[in-house]
Amino acid sequence: MEYEERVNQQLATLYREADSTLDRAAMDALSKGKRIRAILALLWCEAISGEYEPAVPVAVAYELAHAAALVQDDIIDGSEKRRGAESIVHKYGLQDAILASNALLFHVPRKIAEYSRFNLSAEALCRLFDMLGQSYGAATKGEYLDLQMAKRREVSENEYEEMIRLKTGALIAASAASGAIVGGGLLEDGVVGRAYKFGEWLGMAYQVQDDMLDLMGDERAMGKAIFTDMKGGKRNLVLIHAFKHCSESERDFLAGLLGNQRSYGEEEIGRARALFVKHGSVSYSGRMASRYVEKAKMVLDSMRESDAKVKLLELSDFLSSRSY
Questions:
Q1: What does R_g of the chain's alpha carbons equal in angstroms?
Q2: Would you say the pTM of this structure is higher than 0.90?
Q3: Which pLDDT belongs to residue 118?
Q4: How far apart are CA 174 and CA 41, in angstroms?
């Protein structure tokens, strides 16, 4: 895909030498990503201005921020795999993983600062920096809420929705809105806000789908272990729904798995999955993900027709039905 290749070219220039373990760790953290945030920035810029090139620096910035967040997630979760390979923390150790995350973040404001060479207003530049700080702060709060919820016996759907809105929705929303800003969106009433809502709804759908795949997906296709969140005691929509509808004995079984760090047997995994299907928890979560996607697509109704709009719609459909 043209957009993905353009972003990958820019990312490659940051660690072309990779002459230290730190650089190699940072470069590995950037490998094999879907580039969803970057592509959204490029497409929103193109939808407004007719070209995506002005959004390349901000697209790269959000891809760097996302990669740093993934390294931190793997540190927190103790994940051994990421994208079919060893996670950064498992491959390089805790100290280098922390430093690699910082090294990635170091480049983020520098990429935004490149707009000093563009014909971008001071207001637009300030909005880019403010949005970056706000979204990363929201993502951090969302991760905190996720960890806090794992310590509690009961979590509501509303609490889960708020957590994913912050944890995943914020950075995806900000990347879309930032693309709109550099595409001239501040000159059109409400367009930046619509770009943000589009990304927020899409990000929430993405997280629900990701949580479903953690429980029902194929390890080889995903390139990472299944039931990782459940082992960490984390609640997701499938589990919240299942706990609400299970019998007492079924609930006791699932509770015995939740937060249990040992390896689950095939029989346990099969039984848990059967319960998720039996009580409609998987289909319910799928419907919620689809509902979020439809809300995102409705945001596009007011946009003029363009190839970029078509691609935004296609990307929305892909994210709601992906298997990896």
A1: 20
A2: yes
A3: 87
A4: 9
**pLDDT at position 323, please?**
67
Q: How far is residue 257's CA from residue 234's CA, in Å, rounded to a whole number?
A: 11
CA dihedral 239, 243, 249, 250 (to 10 degrees): -40
pLDDT at 162: 98
Q: Which residue numbers in the chain have pLDDT < 50? A: none
CA 267 to chain centre: 31
Do 231 and 261 meet the contact criterion of CB atoms below 8 Å apart? yes
What separation in angstroms does the CA of 128 have from each of 54, 125, 182?
13, 5, 9
Bridge partner list, 157: none
How far, in Å, CA of 76 to CA of 70, rounded? Answer: 10
Asked if 65 and 72 touch (Cβ cutoff 8 Å), the reply is no
pLDDT at 317: 87
d(Cα 114, Cα 128) in Å, to the nearest integer? 12
Q: Which amino acid is at 42?
A: L
Distances from the Cα of 288 to the Cαs of 89, 117, 166, 200, in angstroms? 33, 43, 17, 14
Write down the pLDDT at residue 119: 85
Judge contact between 30 and 60, C-beta under 8 A. no
Please spell the DSSP secondary structure of 100-124, one letter per residue.
HHHHHHHHHHHHHHGGGGTT--HHH
149 neighbors 235 (Cβ within 8 angstroms):
yes
CB 62 within 8 A of CB 178: yes
CB 33 within 8 A of CB 4: no
Closest CA to 100 of 152, 128, 64: 64
Determine the Cα–Cα distance for residues 285 and 265; give it in Å rounded to an integer. Answer: 25
CA distances from 286 to 249, 322, 324 (A): 25, 11, 15
- Joined tokens for residue 312: 């935004």
- The amino acid occupying position 121 is S
